[in-house]
Each structure stands twice: as C-alpha cells, then as structure tokens.
Amino acid sequence: MKYDTVVIGGGLAGLICGIRLTQSGLSCTIVSAGQNALHFSSGSLDLLTQLPNGHVVEKPLTALDELSEQAPTHPYSRLGKLEVIKLTHLAETLLQQSGMKLKGSSDENHYRITPLGHKRSTWLSPEFVPTVGLHQKMNKGKIAVVGIEGFLDFQPQMVSAELQREGIPASAHYVHLPLLDRLRENPSEFRAINVARWLDRPENMAQIVAEIAPLIADADTIFMPACIGLDSEEPLLELQKQLGKPIYLLPTLPPSLLGIRLHETLLRQFRRQGGIIMPGDKVTSVNCVGSCIESVTTRNHGDISLKASQFVLATGSFFNNGLVAEFDRVYEPLMDLDLCHIPPRAQWTNKEFFASQPYMTFGVQTDQQLRAQKDGQPIENLYVAGAVLGGFDPLTEGCGAGVSLISGLHAAGEIIRYFEQQKALQAEVTP
Ligand SMILES: Cc1cc2nc3c(=O)[nH]c(=O)nc-3n(C[C@H](O)[C@H](O)[C@H](O)COP(=O)(O)OP(=O)(O)OC[C@H]3O[C@@H](n4cnc5c(N)ncnc54)[C@H](O)[C@@H]3O)c2cc1C
User: Residue 166: pLDDT above 80?
Assistant: First the structure.
C-alpha cells in the first residue's frame, strides 16, 4: 500500500495534518492505535495562557516574542512568530470548515467555566460551553445549575457556590430521571457518554422536559453537565426549545462528550476529503533506508507494509505511549528518537504539586523544521507534531491544543511544499 503520506497517530495533531494534506489533494492514511487526548479533554482549545515565568497571557499572538526569549526550545519559538501566526489563523479556518462551531479568537483569550465553576483561560470553546470575556462579568441572569441524580462526575452545588462567590446569582438542583435507573444500578456505567445515549433518544425528551421544567422556573439560564448531544446538537437544541431557556454545557470527567464531538467532527472531515483512517491499528516498526523512512509495518497489516514519501509522527505524550518512562529512563518507543534534554531522575518532578512539572516538557528533539532526529542526524522525511514534541509544558503554559494544531499544520505545509517541488522538477525534465 502506497500513499503520499502516512501519519502515525490520529489525535488532534495527526487529524489536522491529515485534513490539510487531503485538502491539498495528497493521499494520506492515518494509523491510530487507540483513544486520544481529545476523549479526555475539556473540548476547549488552548493556544497560550501563561509564560514560563508565570506571567498571564491575554493576547497569545503578541506574547510570542517574550515566549521565544524565555523558552527558545518551545515549538512556537522554533517555528518563529510569523509561521505561528499564519498557522493559528489557518487552524481557526480549518476547524470552522470542518463543521466545528467554536467561539473565541487568537486576538484575545477568554474564560471558560470549568466543571467546578472556576474560570479558566483558553483560546476556542465549543458553542454551548459558558464563556466570559477576560475583563467582563458573566451576564446570563439567574443561573440554574442542574445536575443529574446519581451522576457523581458533576456536582451542581460546587458550581453554583463558585458562581455565587463571583457575585453571579446561581442555584443548584438535581433532576431525577427514571429513564436513567438502568445506569444507576451500575455506577461505573454512569458516565457522560452513557447518559447522553439515553438523553439523546427523541422518545425520552418529554420525560426530561417534565422533570427539569419545575426546577428552572425562576431561572434565566441553565447550566448542565455535557451529557446530551453526543452525535449531533439536535437533542440539545430541542431541549432548549422546549424549556424556553438557553442551556450551556459544562465539561465532565472523562470520557468527555465535548472532546469526542470535536474528534468525530475532524475525523468526518478527513474522511470526506478522501483520507484513510486505520483505527485500532498500531505502527510497530519503521523501515529506514539511509536517513529516510521507506515504509512502516503495522500490527493489523502484518507483512503488508505502508509505503510513503513522507511520514508524520503524532503519537502523543506519555498519556498515549508516544513517550515511555521507566524508573530512570525516558524514550520514544517506535524509533528511539533523540529526545530534548532530560535532567537527572531527581529533577523530573517538582515537589510543589501545583508548580510546572519538568517531565511535562520531555519529548522528541527536532530541527527547526520539526523533523525528527536520531543520533544527532535528521530523518529527512519524518516530521513530528503534537504532544510527542519536547520543549513545552501544555498544562502550565496552556498551549496543548495550539501546539498540536500548529505543529500538525506546519508538517502538512512542509509536505505540500515537497510535493510541489517534486511536481515542478518533473515538469522540467518532461519534454
Ligand atoms: C487528559 C488530557 C486532557 C487534556 N485536555 C486538554 C484541553 O482541555 N485543552 C487543551 O488545549 N489541551 C488539552 N490537553 C493537551 C493535549 O495534549 C493536546 O490538546 C492534544 O489533544 C494532543 O494531541 P496529539 O494528537 O498530539 O496526541 P494524542 O491526542 O495523545 O494522540 C496520539 C494518538 O497516537 C496514537 N498512537 C500512539 N502510538 C501509536 C503507534 N505506534 N501507532 C499508531 N498510533 C499510535 C495514540 O493511540 C493516540 O490516538 C490534554 C491532555 C491530556 C493528556
């Protein structure tokens, strides 16, 4: 099997890369071993919310010069300000074209409301997540925070107490939904996705409306856990219509409906554009000739290797085995690629629990074009994208999704340029 590009890993970085490649008419297959970080995420996408020195970032794109000074190995610093700005805008466009309804802008971060009712700064948020401008007060009138009896992943009283502390009128309620009794019998099944499967059924709408309506009679706005609208927004729009009040969704503990929606939307767009996805398959070995990869072998395809001119490594960080940590060793498991500087074992963690943890910045070392290196030499046709990259801390710098999107798009851009050059060369030699 031969493609223009094989992408290893189908998380945010691999998918956006595949979308850009197929949009340009290149053939691309994504091999993806399992779930990705989106399934566990808030559904909001962070670009840059804090500099390494702790300064809060309000306008991410104007903070890039300062970031380069403080963190020269950060993927944004390696790519340079102009490339990051260009690719940020491209990411916003591609997400929108894929069908994602997101609010926010790279001009200025906004706050999203967390499942605990706190405000957290971010770049883009799903349409139905409650957000507020950085210097604004939430203006949604009286808010009824409605939890679901038996669903322990969301505590409405915590959210409403936090909103009240901010001076926002809010009250907490629990709705009892007999249609969920079957889930209640098995608490480990009582997860956002399973709840959504019941709430999304049209035949259940009347019961949901009947049970919620009395609780929210004197509220202007409803906050609920993100447990409705798994495959489409229709059930949420219908509930909103029948209750006659705007409804906002707060992310829950994983699995995250908002993150899954984002993943499914990107996957659909990739497939629509002719991309091939091999879900549940895993690249097990890489066959190199000189400083280039010729093909990869996967668990499911056995002897049939996947050949391509270009490859992208987007296997994620420790969370998805894109990196592996043993007691005193960290490595990249597929090719044992060079990693950025790893300090002695005692310095991997910071005793201050909430401080930036050094291990978060561990990852694959690249050249300025984000090509992987092995034994100090670049692998000519292997770009690295997303959380497997080293040199940044997605959690404290609030840049996880941004790095994935921008590095994934950068890899795609370099690959598109390579094929354009090949085409031009071909045209020159063809009489
Ligand atoms: C739990 C969690 C929550 C997060 N929440 C947020 C958030 O709310 N907002 C935000 O901005 N950022 C968040 N982040 C940061 C996150 O890292 C990025 O946002 C981004 O989603 C990472 O995408 P990725 O594609 O680089 O990697 P991943 O999403 O980790 O995807 C890597 C994929 O590669 C696959 N893979 C690994 N090895 C192989 C192989 N050998 N062959 C084939 N496939 C392979 C894995 O199975 C996985 O599907 C979160 C991170 C984590 C871990």
Answer: yes
Average pLDDT over all residues of the chain? 95
Q: Indicate whether 300 pLDDT > 80.
A: yes
Q: Ligand 1 centre and the CA of 38: distance in Å?
A: 6
Q: Taking the domains of the chain in order of start, what are their residue ranges?
A: 2-103+260-429, 140-250
Q: Tell me phi and psi for residue 134, to 5 degrees.
A: -60, -35
**Residues facing residue 328 across a β-bridge:** none
Is 334 touching ligand 1 by the criterion CB < 6 Å? yes
Which amino acid type is present at position 62?
Answer: T
Asked if 13 and 407 touch (Cβ cutoff 8 Å), the reply is: yes
Q: Evaluate: CB of 400 within 6 angstroms of ligand 1.
A: yes
Q: How far is CA 7 from CA 237, 246, 312, 403, 412, in A?
A: 36, 40, 5, 17, 10
Question: Who wins on pLDDT, 179 or 334?
Answer: 334
Encode pLDDT of 48-82 as tens digits. Answer: 999 999 999 999 999 999 999 999 999 999 999 99
Protein residue whose Cα sits closest to atom 13 of ligand 1: 400
Contacts of 403 (CB under 8 A, 6+ apart): 75, 76, 386, 387, 389, 392, 394
| Residues 6+ positions from 259 with CB-CB distance below 8 Å | 37, 38, 39, 40, 41, 42, 43, 251
* The domain over range 140-250 is classified in CATH as 1.10.10: no
Comparing CA positions, the residue from 111, 104, 153, 151 lying closest to residue 127 is 104
Can you tell me which atom of ligand 1 is nearest the CA of 284? 41
- Asked if the 2-103+260-429 domain carries CATH number 3.50.50.60, the reply is yes
- How far away, in angstroms, is 323 Cα from ligand 1 center? 11
Residue 387 Cα to ligand 1 midpoint, Å, equals 6
Tell me which residue of 126, 64, 120 sits closest to 95, measured CA to CA.
126
Q: pLDDT tens across 230-282, in order?
A: 999 999 999 999 999 999 999 998 889 999 999 999 999 999 999 999 999 99
Which one, of 235, 178, 183, lies nearest residue 210 by Cα?
Answer: 178
Q: How far is the CA of 333 from the centre of ligand 1 (A)?
A: 16
Is any atom of ligand 1 closer than 6 Å to the C-beta of 386? yes
Report the C-alpha gap between 53 and 31 in whole angstroms: 38
- Per DSSP, which regions of 340-386 are E strands? 371-374, 377-384
